[in-house]
Design brief:
This protein has 238 residues and is mainly alpha-helical. The chain has nine helices and no strands.
Length: 238
């Protein structure tokens, strides 16, 4: 058995006293770093996952706009909300505004208007000097207000409305009845459409690609509120 001298014991005591203490609990620095990383990921989500982001925005925004109209403009109580009517906007917002419009205004526009991506990345001053980009942007505006909205958007909306109302189980009736109602409202619908979407498109089609659809959905909140107020009610057949 080895016996330690007093000097050896004193030396060991000083050694342990001077040794840095190690703590195994999570540091506040690590937590802050993790929180910052999460925040950065969320902030970058619209740019890294533009389709998924605008799909969520389109669906939520469209439903919310109808609910605001029903509760605020029409002064309905929560138990009086027409959920079938709101269902029209949920289906239309998800499938058409979130899905089809992305395919049309990003995928197909990219093929039809080849300067789109390059033009979108330029500064505003550089855009003003890009004649080809300006012409393509103008073509996008014209296509939207002359072809897309009057010939695709409105007929689809009225058809979806007939589908959700389920006055008939025949898809041919949905299209026929929907287009008949659109024809009766066409003058008023197209006048309102030009007043809003004409100026809005002039802004949308010069924005960066990942911002274009969220911007459109923001403007569409007010447009959807108008459509809900004027065209949202479901007419039951006798």
């Amino acid at each position: 058995m080895t016996v330690l001298s007093r000097s050896s014991i004193n030396s060991l005591s000083k050694s342990f006293a001077n040794k840095p203490q190690t703590h195994h609990t999570p540091s506040s620095t690590s937590f802050s770093s993790s929180a910052a990383s999460t925040g950065t990921s969320l902030a970058s989500f619209p740019k890294t996952h533009p389709f998924a982001f605008q799909l969520l925005v389109a669906t939520g925004k469209t439903s919310a706009a109808d609910l605001v109209v029903q509760v605020v403009a029409e002064r309905k109580k929560l138990d009086e909300i027409d959920w079938k009517r709101n269902g029209i906007f949920v289906v239309f917002g998800f499938a058409y505004l979130g899905g089809f419009q992305w395919w049309l205004m990003v995928t197909k526009y990219r093929q039809w208007f080849p300067t789109m991506d390059r033009f979108a990345k330029l500064s505003f001053a550089e855009k003003l000097k890009d004649t080809a980009g300006i012409l393509d942007a103008a073509k996008m505006v014209v296509f939207d207000v002359v072809v897309h909205l009057p010939l695709i958007y409105f007929p689809t909306y009225y058809t979806v409305k007939e589908f959700v109302s389920m006055n008939s189980y025949n898809p041919i009736d949905w299209v026929k009845d929907g287009c008949t109602k659109y024809a009766g409202n066409m003058k008023e619908d197209l006048s309102a459409m030009i007043k809003l979407w004409g100026p809005s498109d002039c802004v949308q089609f010069v924005l960066p690609i990942h911002i274009r659809m969220p911007f459109r959905h923001m403007v569409s909140f007010f447009w959807t509120a108008y459509v809900s107020f004027t065209r949202g009610a479901i007419e039951e057949k006798n």
